[in-house]
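[SOLVED] Need 3D model of a two-part complex

Original post:
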Amino acid sequence: MISNQILQTNIEGMKSITRVELCICDTEGKVLASTFTGAEEYENAILAFVDSPADSQVIQGYQFFKVFDEHQLEYILLAKGGSDDVYMVGKMASFQIQNLLVAYKERFDKDNFIKNLLLDNMLLVDIYNRAKKLHIETNVKRVVFIIETQHEKDVNALETVRGLFSAKTKDFITAVDEKNIILVREVKPGETYDDLEKTADTIVDMLNTEALTRVNVAVGTIVNEIKDVSRSYKEAKMALDVGKIFYSTKSVVAYSKLGIGRLIYQLPLPLCRMFIKEIFDGKSPDEFDEETLTTINKFFENSLNVSETSRQLYIHRNTLVYRLDKLQKSTGLDLRVFEDAITFKIALMVVKYMKYMENLDY
Amino acid sequence: MAKLSLERVSKQYEGGIDAVKDLSLQVEDGSLCVLTGPRGSGKTTVLRLAAGLETATGGTIRLDGIDVTGMPARERGVAMMMKNSVLYPDMTVRDNLAFGLRLRKRPEKETAARVEEMAGLLNLTPLLDVKPDRLTRVQKSLVAIGRAAVHHPVLLLIDGPLAEPGTQAEEMMKRELRSLREKLGFTILYTTDDPQDALSLAGQIAVLRDGCLQQAGTAKELRENPASRFVAAFAADPALNVLRAEAVRAASGRIGLETVGGTLSLTPEKEKILIRAGYVGKPVLAGIGAAALIGAAGGADGDLAGTVRETENAAPDGYAFVEIGDTLCLAKWEGGPAAEGEQAALSAEPDRIFLFDPQTEQAITGL
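Solution:
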């Protein structure tokens, strides 16, 4: 569970303090980390030591120690030298590695706990019991961020996010699928949704610059208790979807600011179909050409202002009026009239939603 | 060969939103180019297109002559520094600088050497083992730049401004950026929405508006030969005055600009331009930078007559607001203190008057 790199760093650290050469092997005699060369020679001695009942032993100028993980033999530690001092150093090193195992296990357990919490795989009573055991506070404010990367298993992205938040042990970083990194963050007193969006902006910019990858970040709402963290996660997931459908230019989407997209996202598809049939009479807005759609979107963008829209489209005012008249003929909706414009705008959003839902892979 | 070459590049987002339109721009090897323009003019999108974080919907992007339009960001060899970049809070400056190299699995020896080199160049060596919470804002920004530059990118993209415009910190950042470019020979593309930041920093400046390139050139070119009213207003320090006028031929045969406040005389070259472009007897817009419009109390000796307004408000030191007809102008004030309502005589330096078409607002060049 502990990487060899960590073991190596640890024994090197201990050697620099004590000047005692150390080596860690697995129970089959394979060297995992060592501060000296030639440790492989002791494989047979290690195998014999594993089978012996002794906890420590001096063999060929090295003191051998057993490192247990909950009574299960995990590693063999070798310390060079036969003196009492070396015995003491070896004992302390074994103790250190044993504690590392416990700490790593706890971290692994915490990760599992958070995953199960997010996916609603736990009974309410278990949530509180396990949280207590894992020393996770249950009644602090938290929020869930989902970071969706372009590439599956993007290690660079995960490392960058860990770099930004990991050392704060109160934040959790995990993944429940290949493309999404999940950050469960403790909300500081006085932190607002605007601050959380700024944090999300920072995540986007950091992943752009460090991992050179484009990401979308969704933010759930702030919850007060650990049992509600999964709600914040679901909200962030929904925000990610709604953002993809309606706000594709934004890389940060907050559940608290989904606007009308939130309403449309909850509509049943048959109802949407009925609405579109009523508005467009069976004709799909897909059938509008690119030019018409650009005209419509620009017209909405400029708050139904004919002059400004024609200026931005580099067309004559009369050309725009002609296009709007043509649209009115085919749909019966005059975009210059506020009510028709609203209907059209909502209909376009509903169509976007329907298309997205129909293209989803099940 | 240009380091970065954008050839008729467009970016249209879903829903027909044009972020960049038909943009062509060459950034020479080893140069510092500034993209500038108001917010929403497409600067950051151009940067993201060059980095590969956005895909162009039209045109070609080349790096060192190689077409990289569809190439993923990680393969382009560029580095970026974005507006919201922060430092890893629990890592020392050394680890912050090394982080990206470690992600890219560079050998530890090379990583250490590059970190030392970058720290030396940015005067960060004494701070290598310090954590970000003990750094000043300038030092933090320097580390952020170092973190991008440590990759030795073929192109360094910086979404600026680097510090609060007009502050000492900004000056310092600019100095460091220039020296970094000189020492390492980087090509840098930098964005800022502050015109003075742009004009003071770079050799080459590209002005964007609504996703379109308005003009690219040196600060001198933009100031002296703006391609449009927009660029003139953008490059003017402290402001550009625009007066509606008519190009008229006087009895002497010379051509002047008749405005509501009086007639402005022009240089012979500008007169020729108006004749060649067929503007004589037609309306034009006269653009005069505030520094080129000299005002004094009195009403007789100037080209234009106006009334002093709002003397106590807003006007920068040595300047005054003067109303000419219905246009409020900012003029360099010479002579004694001006009182509100007082008559003012204004004269404009003929070689510093810009001529624009009233409809298109493009410069009249006579070409």
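Edit: The two ends of chain B are 29 Å apart (CA to CA).
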